[in-house]
Amino acid sequence: MSMLLRKEKKHANVPNSRQVYIKKNPFENIVSDVCELGSKINDTPNYFVTFRDQYTGYTKVFTIHKKNEVKDKLFHYIRWVTNQFSERRYRMKSLFTDKGTEYLNSEVTDILSEAGIESHTTSGYTPAPNGMSKRLNQTLLSDARTILHSGKLESKFWPEAILYVTTIRHHVYNTKLKTSAAKLIGLEPLDARRLHIFGEIVSVHIPPNEGKPETRSHIGIYLGHDEQT
Predict the structure, then answer these.
(1) What's the pLDDT score for residue 192?
(2) Among positive and negative, which fits the CA dihedral 115, 116, 117, 121?
């Protein structure tokens, strides 16, 4: 678990300083940040990048091995917003990031320019304007540590843990929105009956192979909900 234990610097917040940037339409303003986990374990990704909608808080998380993969995840995210929410006419208009080279490069500039998206960066040595993403990453890491510890699982399962807690947060009632982030943007509600406790021992069904005497299931560990099933 040591790779997940890290210190985070806290920055003073200016009251209501970010309200001017928050639009009342989903996905207009997106904040993004990359978080490094620390010591690398085998082939487990060492980073994750988040794309968070400033209005709803709905967040997409991608695990990556290198920071130069951010451009690919950004392209994927833009396509996802455009294709999945075309009927609701949601579109991304602005991206807020720090001044990391994973964002400030010609490839990212071309992706944003082609999509008609404005790029905004924080001022040097003052990351508070991008504090939403920083706090989000800290929260997700804290949640992931908790369920890894409670499930008595190794740190190598942190990518699954991050995705699990993010999915849960999407469907939790938000008092400011008066609904969940997922429901507000038009996604199907999560069926709680399909969820298990992270790290729970489960029986995985194996499709029958006619005429074969092999077992029809095997024992596994529950590592999260697959949004595509």
Answers:
(1) 77
(2) positive
